[in-house]
Write a structure and sequence with these properties.
- Keywords: Oxidoreductase.
- This is Gfo/Idh/MocA family oxidoreductase.
- It comes from Paenibacillus campinasensis.
- Belongs to the Gfo/Idh/MocA family.
- The chain is 33% helix and 27% strand.
- The chain is an alpha/beta fold.
- It folds into two domains: 120 residues, Rossmann fold; 178 residues, Dihydrodipicolinate Reductase, domain 2 (2-Layer Sandwich), CATH 3.30.360.10.
- Strands 7, 8, 9, 10, 11, 12, 13, 14, 15 and 16 form a ten-stranded mixed β-sheet that branches. The chain has a six-stranded parallel β-sheet with strand order 3-2-1-4-5-6, sandwiched between helices.
- α2 links the parallel β2 and β3.
- α4 runs parallel beside α5, α5 packs antiparallel against α9 and α7 crosses α9.
- The radius of gyration is 20 Å and the shape is globular.
């Protein structure tokens, strides 16, 4: 007999929830979507009916009060992440919160403190890193398949500039391309290099047509050993999301680094003068993300990506935004116990 699945509650009817996360949770091994809430009860009921969710609530508070719910997924606009994640944690629920976890490192640290205080898990929803190809890529790097890593380049862009009602264009709601998609290359570089950056320099297009949020940004993120991430991100450019890792003896190329088009999960390894397509298992990264959180909850073990990682990522995002506004290089201080070389 299989064990009961964890019951998830969805806080809001965001597009990412309906399009990807809810189906991913529903198709996972250890979880099921049991309820959804919206401040518009009719919207909640309609979404529940469309996605076969048993229960719909007309307020976020009602969902948090449901004693049957184990995990809350928070896909709300960025400025609401801290409040509702902490409220969910304090209601005795584990939380998967959309990226970026918060608007600042300080907010993220406050959320991490709430998770520690309540004994609940708090995870950031970077689903891409739960796909097995990233374990494959890290293994190739560690084994020296491309020699020493010299540089990483990545990008994440799309064009939604013509949609004036997009929440990503609300400055006071945490809008902008660095928050929304620049966070991916930053997170990926930290993941693959296994270290924290020393400094960042970013130039951005702050658009008066879009509430002065950064609609495009290009950046340099410096790591130890003179290795850098160069990245660009934007909501006013053609769609793309590649990742390239350049080594002394080879290159790893990921054409679709943060999305998973049908049949597009593969990547390429160039080594010893030959380019090989590296095929990977066809899995749902959203389902894998849900199951890894569920395993941590069920078996009472640490998260694979602890909430401290989200706090560290927010520190880099803070610096990127500061650099873009001030048009200057921002040096990052070391964490306690961590020595960053000049």
């Amino acid at each position: 007999m299989s064990a009961p699945k964890l019951k998830w509650g969805i806080l809001g009817c965001a597009s990412i929830a309906k399009r990807a996360v809810i189906p991913g949770v529903a198709n996972s091994r250890l979880n099921e979507v049991a309820a959804i809430a919206s401040r518009d009860e009719e919207k909640a009921k309609k979404t529940a009916e469309e996605l076969n969710i048993p229960t719909a609530y007309g307020s976020y508070e009602a969902l948090l009060e449901d004693p049957s719910i184990d995990v809350i997924y928070v896909p709300l606009p960025n400025h609401l992440h801290k409040e509702w994640s902490i409220r969910a944690l304090e209601a005795g629920k584990h939380v998967l919160c959309e990226k970026p976890l918060a608007l600042t490192e300080a907010e993220a640290a406050e959320m991490a403190d709430a998770a520690e205080r309540t004994g609940m898990h708090l995870a950031e929803a970077f689903m891409y890193r739960h796909h097995p190809r990233y374990d494959m890529i890290k293994k190739l790097i560690v084994e020296g398949a491309i020699g020493e890593v010299r540089a990483i380049h990545s990008a994440f862009t799309f064009n939604s500039a013509g949609n004036p009602g997009n929440v990503r264009f609300r400055k006071d709601w945490g809008g902008g391309s660095i928050y929304d998609i620049g966070c991916y290359p930053i997170n990926a570089a930290r993941l693959l290099l296994g270290q924290e950056p020393q400094a960042v320099t970013v130039q951005a297009l702050f658009s008066p047509e879009h509430d002065h949020v950064d609609m495009m940004a290009s950046g340099l993120v410096e790591f130890e050993g003179y290795v850098s991430l160069t990245f660009d991100c934007g909501m006013w450019a053609a769609f793309r999301n590649p990742l390239e890792i350049i080594g002394t003896e080879g290159i790893i190329e990921v054409p679709h680094a943060y999305t998973f088009p049908e049949g597009g999960g593969h990547f390429f390894l160039t080594a010893k003068g030959e380019r090989h397509q590296m095929d990977v298992p066809h899995v749902n990264a959203y389902s894998e993300q849900a199951d890894e959180l569920a395993e941590a909850i069920i078996f009472r073990r640490p998260l694979r990506y602890p909430v401290a990682d989200a706090v560290h990522n927010m520190r880099v995002i803070d610096a990127c935004l500061q650099s873009a506004h001030e048009r200057t290089r921002i040096t990052l201080n070391a964490y306690p116990g961590e020595e960053l070389k000049a």
